[in-house]
Write a structure and sequence with these properties.
Blueprint lengths: L1 H14 L13 H11 L1 H5 L7 H10 L22 H13 L1
Helix pairs in contact: 1-2
Length: 98
Amino acid sequence: MSFAYIHLNRLITKYDLDVIFLAGPGHGAPGVLAPAYLEGTYSEVYPNKGEDEEGLRAFFKEFSFPGGIGSHCTPETPGSIHEGRARVQRLARLWRRL
């Protein structure tokens, strides 16, 4: 998932594309959170998780820990949309028609 996320972001930037990356719910959070942290998006939303050793340590310490960063994609994940499975399926069908 990280591979797809990273390369899609590269293409979006290079060609100025209007694209949305959809990842399913569940334990896919690391596949989205890791690249979001590495590219700086996570630190923009959560400044206490800066792009330095201290921020990385805080990020690791809170991952998959009660009250911390969820191991599932949660509403706190930057850019995540939580509308339920049926809405995601509808969005995917709509996207195919475009």
